[in-house]
Amino acid sequence: MKKRKLTGFGIEVKDRLTDINMTQKKLAKEIGLSPVYLSMILYGERSGEKYLDEIKAFLKL
Question: How much is the average pLDDT of 25-39?
């Protein structure tokens, strides 16, 4: 099985979550996404285009 790799955006989000001590699950809840869908965005399996601005704004990226 091929190991999934985070996109550049995914790495940025994960680093920021670490900085503010928040889980990916909590971020998904705050934005109104399922944790699985957020993960798919971070790994480039879904564009998640309509949520990108919201994620960036929430995390102040």
Answer: 97
What pLDDT, on the 0 to 100 scale, is given for residue 4? 85
Determine, yes or no, domain membership for 2: no
- What is the C-alpha separation between 48 and 30, in angstroms, rounded? 15
User: Tens of pLDDT along 1-22?
Assistant: 667 899 999 999 999 999 999 9
**Which residues are CB-neighbours of 58 under 8 A, at least 6 positions away?**
27, 30, 31
In a domain, 20, yes or no: yes
Within a domain: 21: yes
| CB distance 41 to 47 below 8 Å | yes
